[in-house]
Amino acid sequence: MSVVEVAREAYREALPALSVSLVAGLLSGVVLGGMQDELRVVSGLLMLVPAFLATRGNVFGSFGARLATALHQGLIEPRVRGGDERLRSAVTAALVNALLVSVFAAVATYFVLTLLGLPHASLLTLVAIATIAGALSGAVLATAVVVVVFAGYRRGYNPDTIVGPVVTTTGDVFGLLFLLLAVRVVLALLGGGG
């Protein structure tokens, strides 16, 4: 294959995913804009948002890369089966990592805001929000990554090309939606601004 053919193939595979990513990124902006009340009530939430979203991409991007590598090496088949120990282990590791890093992002946010002397919600509030949003977005992202990587692979696409835009897009949209939901749940349970 020539350099031009390789480039053409890469763009053919990536352009649809990047286009969807662009539109979904705008949707994420709409969700964030709709969170103005929650951002005012939960001091420090705005600082948590980028850290939380970045961790979605980091954890599930590496999960997608592991799946793609396993497919390329023939270690797993591009189908979901309950008995596939490698796939089950990879999904479990991604979900556990997502929860741990969500809690870490909340704790880091709390301590940075404390050190800077800036107003912030309680540690319990920030951790509860991050944990709920992390669990929910993790479940959606794990499912999306498996479905997209396997479906793309079966259709002849390189999963390494499509997993990045899918993870960042899905992580941003569902991460923000579940942060909004988590804030509302935590405020209802704990009352006030935490």
From TrEMBL:
Coiled coil location: none
Occurrences of domain SLC41A/MgtE integral membrane (ranges): 49-181
Record keywords: Ion transport, Magnesium, Membrane, Transmembrane, Transmembrane helix, Transport
Residues that span the membrane, as ranges: 14-33, 45-69, 89-116, 123-153, 173-192
Region forming the signal peptide: none
Keyword Ion transport tagged: yes
Gene3D superfamilies per record: SLC41 divalent cation transporters, integral membrane domain
Database matches in InterPro entries: SLC41_membr_dom, SLC41_membr_dom_sf, SLC41A1-3
GO MF term (any one): monoatomic cation transmembrane transporter activity
Domain of life: Archaea
Gene Ontology CC annotations of this record: membrane
Topology with respect to the bilayer: Multi-pass membrane protein
Subcellular location: Membrane
Listed PANTHER family: DIVALENT CATION TRANSPORTER SOLUTE CARRIER FAMILY 41 (PTHR16228), SLC41A_MGTE INTEGRAL MEMBRANE DOMAIN-CONTAINING PROTEIN (PTHR16228:SF7)
Similarity annotation: Belongs to the SLC41A transporter family.
Name by which UniProt lists this protein: Mg2+ transporter
Organism encoding this protein: Halococcus thailandensis JCM 13552
